């Protein structure tokens, strides 16, 4: 541990700023600010490190920083927004690699450590290496370089024994006074293989969760390395990231309705054969929170009420939600299909009851062209009136009926209780479209939840 | 359709009885309000109205009694009801001559405490509601917005003139049915009240707050300004309901023939003030007339269209007025009470209300 | 730093990490993941210290150290730019005057 | 009051013109719907109806034409409107004889796509709304709850029987005005629909879903059970609106004299089925009668009470039906189309609708 | 620092449980659980401490624990609920006293410390002693033993010099190798005097905030003592309480609408002469959060709407709030005064529009007897119709008019925009009653905020 | 424990304390104050250690130690019972079925 007071104090400040930055990033209002703060802290930490007493190889160091930073900066800058997740994966992997690298140097240099530190050294090395190779696999999958989820025969056994071997060799190496080059190499080879083997069988749809998990791992590895080299800034930043990463992983898995254990272990047990690879043409769910965020950060939302809204008596809630969105600057309109509900004017009666002003209510002809410009079409308990089958399928009983073009909106959110069909009893092609997500629940409750989340987004 | 209200209802009869009062009623008087004699317990029935007038110490009535009836009353007896104090000098003279203590509920002071006795208010509410229904029923259009399989019907525009008790109720009712409502009144404080019901207030730039919650008459210049702005609103509306009134005077003429001429074909006008001369040029009291393609309705006896509830409200108002002074079946008026003194028309052979005295030149 | 002190720091850091993000909206999941990915890029300074203390004569140590610093720098720089871009897209819509009736 | 609707409105005329059709109209035909001849652009006016019938290839009508008019029609011409297919064997024979292609909109298949052509639905909505207004207007009570200075008036109870298109609209309208609404229908799926409008459904334990969205007739036993439970609800309500109908048959008699006898004094009954025999015993079509102290109203031509919007809806329905087959001003019917074939009454001298054929015994 | 592994591990667990307990106590749902957990941890910590190697004076120790614990337990058990705040104060003071006592022993024993530790020792001693004497004063005030806010002449100077002297003597003593008995005594006497002098001028109404502040101080003192004696459990528990206590103090001050600086410094500058002593007969405000909590944890709430609700068009919001409360098990009724609003049935129209079912709406005669049983009467934009003057003041224009007995409810919350009078233009005596609090704001907004807070109370 | 480690622990504990209660409803202000008052009753163990290490021969030390333990125990016991009673009053009302129309 360097004893330079100035450097240490700087590290302390950096740690504090990291925590504040993360906190800021957890709220939409301050998120931008958060990353900028953290960025300054990082630059500061890097610069300050050069003042560490007794630092050698400064030239090489600068070169590595310039090269590594430059490559990453450039690639991060040019990548398409849609390819972001794999970039996060690969950068995360690099962090893990760095942590593993630090361990490797310590091992190669044969610095003596006490028991706890040795254990942490080995753990950090393993976790870092796993994060590295795992992230690389994740990157490859998302980038489309590796399209299938590959399961080894006897995957379970392979995993088990590989894990055992890695830890065994790792601890041996760490506790050894002067570990041999081969042992060290073997150790890292094993750890890297473990990462590959673990991530390989997981499907692309679950990748974000896996990346988040690996990210938390890297955090832990960094934290452990901090203990090993006695740098509290690393400890704090690493562990904070580790803990928040674990929580985040859980939250993400919950938001995607995929319990973590299914993601990690399903491929192992082979229970869920689909493996999470997004099957085209299934109905996909979303949470009330996501629905709220989609709408709250959209420019224009068109609400399509149907008979289900009437059944649920949700009109007051719907209008409340609409008002909240409007207060947030979102443009909201109601699109009433001529035959929505079960009597002429059914929706009018309800919306009037809720107090929706007439100038927000549009009929099919007035609004149908606007769907293409809408960020979200929120379909509440409507079914037949937004069924694109009416446009295409001559054999359908609703063929030829004009429908609301909800399917042309960027995102479609459908609120309904379950798989119930509409009045005409036919399947709705809209629900299977790529841009459509289901928010299950009786409209009254579902919209109630959305309202809560919309409110949570206001600060 | 004439007067169908009754000045007591069974519930109120019970309360009078509890105070020890004896009740005498003309047999069959409640039939038009769906109140058969059998529904009244503890009431003596008289075969004729005359019998009632001759026997009673306190006479409750809805409309002012006819001359013969007044003549039949006991001297010194008390008469209570809507006596139309401004309308007939002769009747007032008769009250004075017979020494009748007459309380005209139209004269009731408009103070908070007296609101529970205020027949003008309660019957105004009934009238406002009814007028909105009449308008909706006669309109050749839907009031509410309605999207049906082949298109959308935009909500009707209803314009209410005069936002007093009746006007506000008409606004609320038309809004309930689904119309878009605009309203206008000369008293500036009505703006907020109109808006509190979700309607739009039309600003003409003319303000005419009078005293006691009533409006004052407008100057000619003000009338012209008002008319200008109103004419535009009138031309756009599908139904027009007028409720403007001035206490003790003929209703102000607000809608001229020229405004009616500019209305849409099929528009409906309900002139609640038809009884007192009408706010609309061409109204015929008690009848419907077509002016061009506009239907102008001048309903009279409007609260009588809803005799059950109108009677109930009226009966309670009268009871609230007189009951504090009934003790053990005897009447003991407290002339210190501002409500009693304020609504007294004649007492002990004198006219007691300065405004009426002056207006009738007595 | 003795084991117990480390344990306390660990525990407190974990609490802090957990609490600090416990109410994150779904829409921020990915940016926040990316942001915390950036934060553990601080491993860079660890790598720098490791390389700085590596034996200048031992090419293996130098090589590993170089790679570690390279990777650490890439983690930090890439993590930052990616997060920044994600959050740049993210703007809180301006508030309009709302009104009921 | 007779028929006041018109089968075209200016907007729709414009659309016909865009399709290249030529329009001929009897002069003054729209007056009762507040549509003067001057409001129609690009339309030729004929002095008499006969002239129109004689000249047209396609005749649009609201009610079935009189015998003379049918006789005047060109052979092979197309007739389109509410033709009351079940009501007159003679008329149908005449259609066949003259080789007229007659589309009776009452026969329109009730499929989703055809809803924009469904005159029964659109006019049902009008009728339901109107009946609720009639009930409110004639009730001697307030519909809504009302707390006033001297007490509180509880909301009226309205009972709606038959929750089809018209019934639901009546429910919605009565609720809007402020009444507490109960409703009843034999089709079980209407429970949810009734409740979706905030009304209460009366469960009698009788279910009678028929085909095509219509109801079937009930057995005697079912009728007794239904009557039992209904009688109780009827006795409690302040206003009763009946809308029950059976396609092609007289309206079911649901409310017997005994039920009416148990109603409250001052209650109001609006029998929307008066035209086809009435759901209520004692209804007189086109008149109001007092049965004991209950007012039974049997309105006819209900949509004609609101001719402007009723005509607009009806005109759009007819246009939506026929327009897909008008190309460059010429009619080319597609007999494959289930809507066309399903609603055809007669074509090329033959009766095309099996149900009507059987019912009329042709 | 004891080196006993078992004791240390136990302390670690205790620290974790304390944090979890505090976290649990911050939510209504889990608060009970939280204190019980913390209680177990405390017992555990105490028992484990007996296993510390080299512990003397165990008999005395047990005696002190039994006596101190017993007295406190008994007094805490019998005290009236309304007297709780002063009990919190006095117990807190005792904690501060204990911290000061530890410092005193260290000083008397003359244990040598390095610079940082010495400073912390002095700081902890001062803060502990201030917390002790300050809490005693706070107790005396709340208990009614000391009724007036006593300001010294030249309070500012006294404070300043006393503070200076205390710190001066304290640091001297702490840095001295073997401080003399008199210096030590002087030091504590000064610190105790400082606490008295600081709290003395603060008025009774502000006491809860002051107690909270002293509580946070005690936490810090305990934390500092932890550093001095090298016990991380004390450090963590103390600092966590210190930090959360600071935040809590701020929150409390905000909820009471009294900025902290006004509370602490106003008496010093003499700016606010009223000193916060609650003047009888003023209008008192409350926050939307308090309004929400009062109602949410009540059994029965009666809502009295008036013309102001109509003006604000708040009926939908009001009904939404009522529904939320009902979902939480609260009984809600609407009380309509015959002449509320500006036309007969004004409130009926609006409530019907909002969808309030008829069976929740009661008129004056039906409901007036129920107010006495209501926990909260929520008066929304009504004024004349709840003015008790109508019952008592013959000269008032509304004398004799029956009014809604909102004033008989346990708590009355009045929502209005400001000091506006009602239709009759007279002052409302209700607003000055002891059980009445004003929630200022246009009804639409104010109720909107209440809704948010009611939701926050659901978990 | 060196100064920097102490600083880190201090900082993290402060963060934790802050975050843990940052969303407390007003109704819990007083109980939470009381609860945290109880938690710093852990000073008891400090006092116990202090008394335990006091010179058994020195009555001054013993007296101060005794008082410190006494006060610490009172803080803990009184803090607990008072908090418990406050929170006991506090019951989350049972949920009923809500319904709109
Ligand atoms: N307007 C008219 O005059 C009229 C008259 C008669 C028939 N129709 C017919 O009615 C249909 C109207 O279309 P529409 O889109 O309004 O309705 P729809 O097609 O009948 O669909 C209603 C949907 O609402 C959902 N739903 C039911 N209760 C719900 C609740 N409590 N919360 C949330 N969702 C609920 C149902 O799915 P889940 O069960 O999964 O929740 C169902 O898919 C058309 O087919 C039309 O032909 C109209
Ligand atoms: N019912 C009738 O038929 C009728 C007819 C005529 C007169 N009146 C009279 O009207 C009165 C009715 O009593 P009331 O209690 O309903 O009303 P009120 O006594 O007139 O009081 C209304 C209160 O609402 C507040 N307010 C106004 N706008 C608000 C807003 N946007 N948000 C929140 N608060 C708002 C006002 O205070 P701030 O300005 O401070 O906000 C005012 O104190 C009686 O005096 C009655 O005699 C009744
Ligand atoms: N404080 C009380 O006890 C009490 C009781 C009842 C009524 N009031 C108040 O008195 C007011 C009037 O009562 P009302 O309804 O019996 O009045 P009203 O029937 O005498 O008049 C009806 C309305 O017509 C309006 N009007 C008159 N001339 C007009 C013109 N030229 N153009 C447009 N409008 C015109 C009046 O302003 C009034 O609002 C009510 O609004 C109410 O606020 C108070
Ligand atoms: N899918 C479509 O395109 C479409 C179009 C229009 C209507 N519809 C459906 O058809 C249904 C019926 O339409 P309608 O209103 O024209 O029907 P209608 O006018 O023929 O009958 C009115 C109502 O009376 C009811 N009824 C019959 N006998 C009864 C009895 N003995 N007691 C009580 N009620 C009795 C019927 O069930 C019906 O609901 C509508 O509710 C609607 O859902 C569907």
UniProtKB/TrEMBL annotation, chains A, E:
<keyword id="KW-1278">Translocase</keyword>
<feature type="transmembrane region" description="Helical">
    <location>
        <begin position="234"/>
        <end position="253"/>
    </location>
</feature>
<comment type="function">
    <text>The transhydrogenation between NADH and NADP is coupled to respiration and ATP hydrolysis and functions as a proton pump across the membrane.</text>
</comment>
<dbReference type="InterPro" id="IPR034300">
    <property type="entry name" value="PNTB-like"/>
</dbReference>
<feature type="transmembrane region" description="Helical">
    <location>
        <begin position="160"/>
        <end position="178"/>
    </location>
</feature>
<keyword id="KW-0521">NADP</keyword>
<dbReference type="GO" id="GO:0005886">
    <property type="term" value="C:plasma membrane"/>
</dbReference>
<keyword id="KW-0560">Oxidoreductase</keyword>
<protein>
    <recommendedName>
        <fullName>NAD(P) transhydrogenase subunit beta</fullName>
        <ecNumber>7.1.1.1</ecNumber>
    </recommendedName>
</protein>
<feature type="transmembrane region" description="Helical">
    <location>
        <begin position="58"/>
        <end position="76"/>
    </location>
</feature>
<feature type="transmembrane region" description="Helical">
    <location>
        <begin position="34"/>
        <end position="52"/>
    </location>
</feature>
<keyword id="KW-0520">NAD</keyword>
<dbReference type="GO" id="GO:0008750">
    <property type="term" value="F:proton-translocating NAD(P)+ transhydrogenase activity"/>
</dbReference>
<dbReference type="InterPro" id="IPR012136">
    <property type="entry name" value="NADH_DH_b"/>
</dbReference>
<feature type="transmembrane region" description="Helical">
    <location>
        <begin position="120"/>
        <end position="140"/>
    </location>
</feature>
Automatic annotation (TrEMBL), chains B, D:
<dbReference type="InterPro" id="IPR036291">
    <property type="entry name" value="NAD(P)-bd_dom_sf"/>
</dbReference>
<keyword id="KW-0520">NAD</keyword>
<dbReference type="InterPro" id="IPR007698">
    <property type="entry name" value="AlaDH/PNT_NAD(H)-bd"/>
</dbReference>
<feature type="domain" description="Alanine dehydrogenase/pyridine nucleotide transhydrogenase NAD(H)-binding">
    <location>
        <begin position="136"/>
        <end position="298"/>
    </location>
</feature>
<dbReference type="GO" id="GO:0005886">
    <property type="term" value="C:plasma membrane"/>
</dbReference>
<keyword id="KW-0547">Nucleotide-binding</keyword>
<dbReference type="Pfam" id="PF05222">
    <property type="entry name" value="AlaDh_PNT_N"/>
</dbReference>
<comment type="function">
    <text>The transhydrogenation between NADH and NADP is coupled to respiration and ATP hydrolysis and functions as a proton pump across the membrane.</text>
</comment>
<dbReference type="GO" id="GO:0016491">
    <property type="term" value="F:oxidoreductase activity"/>
</dbReference>
<keyword id="KW-1278">Translocase</keyword>
<protein>
    <recommendedName>
        <fullName>proton-translocating NAD(P)(+) transhydrogenase</fullName>
        <ecNumber>7.1.1.1</ecNumber>
    </recommendedName>
</protein>
<feature type="domain" description="Alanine dehydrogenase/pyridine nucleotide transhydrogenase N-terminal">
    <location>
        <begin position="2"/>
        <end position="127"/>
    </location>
</feature>
<keyword id="KW-0521">NADP</keyword>
<dbReference type="InterPro" id="IPR008143">
    <property type="entry name" value="Ala_DH/PNT_CS2"/>
</dbReference>
<dbReference type="Pfam" id="PF01262">
    <property type="entry name" value="AlaDh_PNT_C"/>
</dbReference>
TrEMBL record, chains C, F:
<keyword id="KW-0521">NADP</keyword>
<keyword id="KW-0560">Oxidoreductase</keyword>
<dbReference type="GO" id="GO:0016491">
    <property type="term" value="F:oxidoreductase activity"/>
</dbReference>
<feature type="transmembrane region" description="Helical">
    <location>
        <begin position="38"/>
        <end position="54"/>
    </location>
</feature>
<keyword id="KW-1133">Transmembrane helix</keyword>
<keyword id="KW-0520">NAD</keyword>
<keyword id="KW-0997">Cell inner membrane</keyword>
<keyword id="KW-1278">Translocase</keyword>
<keyword id="KW-0812">Transmembrane</keyword>
<keyword id="KW-1003">Cell membrane</keyword>
<comment type="function">
    <text>The transhydrogenation between NADH and NADP is coupled to respiration and ATP hydrolysis and functions as a proton pump across the membrane.</text>
</comment>
<dbReference type="InterPro" id="IPR024605">
    <property type="entry name" value="NADP_transhyd_a_C"/>
</dbReference>
<feature type="transmembrane region" description="Helical">
    <location>
        <begin position="6"/>
        <end position="26"/>
    </location>
</feature>
<dbReference type="Pfam" id="PF12769">
    <property type="entry name" value="PNTB_4TM"/>
</dbReference>
<feature type="domain" description="NAD(P) transhydrogenase alpha subunit C-terminal">
    <location>
        <begin position="7"/>
        <end position="91"/>
    </location>
</feature>
